[in-house]
Amino acid sequence: MKIVFALGGSILVPDEPDLEFMRKFAGFVKELSKKHRIAIVVGGGRAARRRISEARKKGANEVECDYIGIEASRENARMFAEILGEMANREIPGDFLEAKAIWDKGKGIVMGGTEPGHSTDAVAVILAEYLNADLVLKTTDVDGIYDKDPQKSKNAKMFKTLPLDKLQDMVAHLSQDAGKYELIDMVGVKILQRSGIKCIALNGRNLENIKKAIEGKGFVGTVIK
Prior knowledge:
Elements: E1 2-7, H1 9-12, H2 19-32, E2 37-42, H3 45-57, H4 62-84, H5 96-104, E3 109-111, H6 120-130, E4 135-140, E5 161-162, H7 164-172, H8 186-195, E6 198-203, H9 207-215, E7 222-224
Parallel strand pairs: 1-2, 1-4, 2-3, 4-6, 5-7
Antiparallel strand pairs: 6-7
Helix pairs in contact: 3-4, 6-8, 7-8
């Protein structure tokens, strides 16, 4: 199976780089790669949001803020690629053509953002379509997609399944500004709709749960379809 991870930056870099977890996740990816082909798109996380907030206060426009987020995501990707080692690229691809060239050599892919206007979740979905992937795993620091922000509301309920048209309605009411893609941006939703690729949102720090999702066993998360 061909799997693309949309790996939330806050999983690898909660506030500072979590090198211990990066090593653990790298080991998990290496084990998965014995049976599957793996590509990973790393987000910018909290570091990106902080930098974007500071830049916005100084008058930066949204394209400039997007570039700040893209660079943060690539920094995170570089750190993880170094830890992952030889199974993937060391130089972070800047676009999908470069990523595909790496894939065609039989290696896994680690990359960050590409260009302004969309999130790294969208990058993962576009990459999945380009590689004819079977599955996108959107991994964050919560267990799935909720009707409210679970970190702000104790009454938030997680969706076990979420139709794409419902997700589109939810996303339509959220900010599409740089660094504020709470769920997934509209670009990502549209690509999921046209590609038909299965997408699962789940907690990126629960590796055993991710393994169950890949193997089709019972897991905690949200299936987007």
